[in-house]
Specification:
127 residues, alpha+beta, Yope Regulator, Chain: A, six-stranded antiparallel beta sheet, 3 helices, 6 strands, 27% helix, 29% strand
Length: 127
Amino acid sequence: MKDDGLLAHVRELLDTLGRITLRPMFGGYGVYCDGLFFAIVIDGRLYLKVDDETRAHFSAAGSAPFVYEGRSAPVEMSYWQAPEAAMDSAEDMRPWGRLAIAAAMRKPAKKIAPKTSRPKKTWSGSL
C-alpha cells in the first residue's frame, strides 16, 4: 500500500531532524534519519521508536503502540503512533522525532552469534 501524500507529509514533518529517507518494508515503510532507523509508516499512520525512557511521554499524549497479529497472539512493537497534534507541523513534530531518534540510538546493536568451529584435527601419530 503506497500513500504518496502521507509519505511526503511525513518527510516534510521530519525534515528538520536530518536527511530523511523512507524504504519499503513489511507492507509499510521504514523511516531513517541520517541512516538511523527510527520510525515506521504503516496502515496510514506514523509510528515513532520508543524505549523505557520515552514511552511515558507517548502514553501521556494519548498515543498507542503498533500491534500486529503474531502466530499465536498480538505482538506489541516498540513503535508508538505519533501524537495527533504533532502531525500538524514540523515544529510540533520536532520534539517527538528527537525522542524517537534518542530511543533508536540507545537500542543496543544486535549481537551476531560467533560461528562455532570444530577443533582442528591434529595428527598425533608417527610415520
